[in-house]
Amino acid sequence: MIFPQVDARGLTSLYESRHRNALFEQLRPVDGYPVVAYGITDVRHEGKCTLRVGVSDRETIDITLYLGESKIGQLDPCQAARDQVATAMIRNIKARQ
Questions:
Q1: Is residue 37 part of a domain?
Q2: Residue 78 buriedness (CB in 10 A; 0-12 / 13-18 / 19+)
Q3: Which residues form the domain of 21?
Q4: How many domains are there within the chain?
Q5: 80 lies in a domain?
Q6: What are the tens digits of pLDDT across the range 62-90?
């Protein structure tokens, strides 16, 4: 996981530059936190997806998930990253508050 601190503008920068991405898809929020799947190239067919989760107005968390060979074509890597990894991370963040 990467914790980017590019410009402290949260998801705003990603939304402003979405035209540069081959993949830009809003996913269902995780417990109220907005989630966007994005990438300069769309490599979901290879079993890879990167999400950015807005955890505050100024901070985000990036999650990149790589499916195992047997799951490629069976699971949507973006949905798996949202449902499994992002959900667990948000639970951990909330537990520490």
A1: yes
A2: buried
A3: 12-96
A4: 1
A5: yes
A6: 999 999 999 999 999 999 999 999 999 99
